[in-house]
Amino acid sequence: MIPPDSPLRVLVDVTTWVPGRTGVGLYTERLLRAWLALQQNDKLWMASNVGHGELAGLHVDTIGPRMPVRALWMQTAMPALAMRLKPDFAFFPNYMTPVVPTCPYVVTVHDLAVFLYPETFTFKKRVLQRAALPFLVKRAAAVLTPSESTRRDVIRLLHADPDRVVAVPLAAADDFATPPSPETTAEVRAELFLPPRYLLAVGTLEPRKNLVRLIRAFEKIAPHHPDLKLVVAGGRGWRDEAIQAELGNSPVRKAIVSVGYVRPDALKVLYREAIGLCYPSLYEGFGLPVVEAMASGTPVLTSRGSSLDEVADGAAIAVDPLSIDAIADGLELLLRDDALRARLGREGLARAQKLSWHQTAVETRAVFARLRAGQKPHPGAA
Questions:
Q1: Which residues contact residue 36 at a Cβ distance below 8 angstroms, ignoring those fewer than 6 apart?
Q2: Which domains does the chain carry?
Q3: Phi, psi (5° rounding) for residue 111?
Q4: Which pTM does this prediction carry?
Q5: Average per-residue pLDDT for the chain
């Protein structure tokens, strides 16, 4: 029998390590960086179709042939690598896996928005994910989710075995706890033309982020706060035409500042300098901006439902994301109640401090170790 603390051999898909990465790319990078810091002498092969990635400032060579089409690489090169390297497991942090796997695998399913809010996705993504996910989840040795909310969705919608689905919460990057220097703050303010007083929205510009309703809610309160701006930070995503139209045609468009994708060091400044984060997303598997803002001491307005209640854990203003009036009322409350803002800042910071990438790595590695020992991956399974 292999001792439970002996090194693991894992082949990892790191195809999301691309410039300007967000979401799954940051999850993969931060998880693997924390995993390697556990010093378990595990062998983690980093496999990518596009070359190489950066991990904690250290150049990491990736293996496998370069291919411009990720889907083709996933179905050909990745199975071949697994056959050659013979890892204990392959790890797919971004939903998709080979259709014909050549070793046991673990997959992370970040959310099931494509099932619950299909209208917010492209036709291609709807068809591919809705067809593939049930099949890939059924064949996985274990399925990781970033929240208990998403775990329940995977069990309910994909009919997955509860003993094989494990929720491992994410966290803000460690450096969000450190205030940026006054020099960095001044530089970022000047670079992004940040206004003195602003509310902040963070996320890729796509329908699920609910930015159209947020902008319309901001229109309701803007006349009462003539010096207030709404700063929208995020790169363009799919089906963003309605968002772009709203940004361009809003009657208060001069009070809305869209800064596009923001690099991590500048994002730290955006959070710290904001009056509050506005994140009324329709659905999230976790909602990293919520915990990032909390780690920065910034009060948060977010949505009721999906994982966001779980992540905020009572330390945020929670509103109905389908109601423009409810979002507007929440924004008004955030702006006018100084004591509430201060309390949410303290409680949010305490909540964020309970989460860490070290713990995420510990819990993730434990799933692989239990599998190798012949145990069920869920820690509560008999």
A1: 42, 44, 55, 56
A2: 9-171+356-372 (3.40.50.2000), 174-353 (3.40.50.2000)
A3: -165, 170
A4: 0.92
A5: 91
